[in-house]
Design a protein that fits this description.
CATH architecture of the largest domain: 2-Layer Sandwich
Structural class: alpha+beta
Organism: Puia dinghuensis
CATH topology of the largest domain: BirA Bifunctional Protein, domain 2
Strand content: 15-25%
GO molecular function: asparagine-tRNA ligase activity; ATP binding; nucleic acid binding
Order of helices and strands: HEEEHEEHHEEEEHEEHHHEHHHEEEHHEH
Number of domains: 2
CATH class of the largest domain: Alpha Beta
Distance between the termini: 38 Å
Largest sheet: 8 strands, mixed
Catalytic activity: tRNA(Asn) + L-asparagine + ATP = L-asparaginyl-tRNA(Asn) + AMP + diphosphate + H(+)
Main location: cytoplasm
Bound molecules: 4-amino-1,4-dioxobutan-2-aminium adenosine-5'-monophosphate, magnesium ion
Helix content: 25-40%
Number of helices: 14
GO cellular component, one term: cytoplasm
Length: 477
């Protein structure tokens, strides 16, 4: 008599067979009907404790959150909304749950803000169990996509000495004492006595190491945690987030865009085909949330419609210069609705990106040819001398989902750019070696996994799509 998961039970033909199921109580009605869940699906199995069969002491312990082992017969259910139920012969309380101190009162739908404060328990809710099943499926689909294309999964380091983005947003890693580190004569910290013998940090991106792999294996991807010590307390930034970074030899910018678009559509299709139940649940959650907003701010499409639209329509492709022109012509600009100014050369703010995708095009947009001055040193310089072969993918509701580029493969131009941007050329000899020895045109991009999760699940705060969010002032465990 081995345990069967709820998901499997619900699709089994009931033939009065003996089954054992284990899980947590979601509700207990009329001292008789237990809704039991084990996380394999959002649906519960109904366990029937026939009146008069079980003693009062046991029944009192069947409270929301308590864990049970139930053995009984799988029978056809007469109740609405379920095809089978378990007629309990034996109920064992595995763990009691005091209703007076249990912080999860599922009856009155706890708010997402409240659940963030009890992040250790929020997996028990329907919303979060659905989110984390989708997160699992998306992760799997990422590996499946690249595996089918012959890409190799490369594990790039978490601890590194380089600042891939050159933005200085790194968490330092050191074994030196915080309070009294050894110092050089000029007063600066002497890292030569540190574990690594030099200053190191948590990686902001696996790209540079990814390029090394692509220069031999042709097509690789990374998928791992990355860290940014940017103090942006927004619903779209985390200090620790996961990123997928494919890097491809012999690809130009156009190939790069095509791959990114195909990738995003593939992931959405996969989840639509494999996690429909959870997506339908999350779509309903979003619809309820939208109802709380004033009419004018509600989105026209539901979650499922939006996802269908994205897989069935090509992304818009425009240049940065065109994007700036659209913004300058927009009613929002003319009526001074933007908080930040618009002119050629700006690093577009989220309000600008969202105007383009939500108001102007109403679909995902790939923007290419950004000004060199606002992009990283490794991007390939265009003939015009002022823009680079960059591409960002912007999507409704999120803004930037992907950042990528064709890389500068010409040694001289790359070194010159690094000097201009004060990137330590000598320290990065290993990176530049790829340009010295058999350099080839190549390209890649980074997709923010949690932003993709927001897009797919319709959740609106990035802290709600990662199990243990790390953001400013949030690291209790
Ligand atoms: O645009 P970014 O900084 O690009 C890179 O790191 C490149 N090395 C990628 C590459 O070409 N291989 O970051 C890529 C994506 C962004 O588009 C965004 O989706 C996500 O990573 N991202 C964040 N997600 C959550 N929190 C943050 N603080 C993020 N910063 C970037
Ligand atoms: Mg970016």
């Amino acid at each position: 008599n081995t345990r069967v998961k709820v998901k499997e039970l619900l699709s089994t033909t009931p033939e009065n067979q003996n089954v054992t199921v284990m899980g947590w109580v979601r509700s207990f009605r009329n001292n008789q009907f237990i809704a039991l869940n084990d996380g394999s699906t959002n649906n519960n199995i109904q366990v029937v404790a026939e009146l008069g069969v079980f003693d009062e002491e046991l029944l009192k312990k069947i409270t929301p959150g308590a864990s049970l082992k139930v053995t009984g017969q799988l029978v056809a259910s007469l109740g609405k909304g379920q095809s089978v139920e378990v007629k309990a012969a034996e109920i064992i309380i595995l763990g009691e749950c005091n209703p007076d101190t249990y912080p999860l009162q599922l009856k009155n739908r706890p708010s997402l803000e409240y659940l963030r404060e009890i992040a250790h328990l929020r997996f028990r809710t329907q919303t979060f169990s659905a989110v984390f099943r989708v997160r699992h499926a998306l992760s799997f689909a990422i590996h499946k996509f690249f595996n089918e294309k012959g890409f190799f999964y490369l594990h790039t380091p978490i601890i590194t000495a380089s600042d891939a983005e050159g933005a200085g947003e790194m968490f330092k890693v050191s074994t030196l004492p915080f309070d009294n580190p050894p110092r050089k004569e000029d007063g600066s910290i002497d890292f030569s006595e540190d574990f690594f013998g030099r200053a190191t940090n948590l990686t902001v991106s696996g790209q540079l190491e990814g390029e090394l792999g692509a220069m031999a294996l042709s097509e690789i991807y990374t998928f791992g945690p990355t860290f940014r010590a940017e103090n942006s307390n927004t619903a779209r930034h985390l200090a620790e987030f996961w990123m997928i970074e494919p890097e491809m030899a012999f690809y130009d910018l156009e190939d790069n865009m095509n791959l990114a678009e195909e990738f995003i559509q593939y992931l959405i299709r996969y989840v639509m085909a494999n996690n429909r139940e959870d997506l339908d649940f999350l779509a309903q959650r979003l619809a309820d949330e939208e109802k709380q907003k004033p009419q004018a701010e509600r989105s026209e499409m539901g979650l499922i419609e939006k996802l269908e639209f994205v897989v069935n329509n090509k992304f818009e492709r425009i240049t940065y210069t065109e994007a700036i022109d659209i913004l300058l012509q927009s009613p929002a600009y003319k009526k001074k609705k933007f908080q930040y100014d618009v002119k050629w050369g700006i690093d577009m703010q989220s309000e600008h990106e969202r105007y383009l995708v939500e108001k102007h095009f109403s679909k995902p947009v790939i923007v290419t040819g950004y000004p060199a001055a606002i992009k990283a040193f490794y991007m390939r310089q265009n003939e015009d001398g002022k823009t680079v072969a960059a591409m960002d993918i912007l999507v409704p509701g999120i803004g930037e989902l992907v950042g990528g580029s064709q890389r500068e493969e010409r040694l001289g131009k790359l070194e010159q750019r690094m000097r201009e941007m004060h990137i330590p050329v000598e320290e990065m000899w290993w990176y530049l070696d790829t340009r010295r020895f058999g350099s080839v045109p190549h390209a890649g991009f980074g997709l923010g996994f949690e932003r993709m999760m927001l897009f797919v699940t319709g959740m609106t705060n990035i802290r709600d799509v990662i199990a243990f969010p790390r953001a400013p002032k949030t690291a209790e465990f």
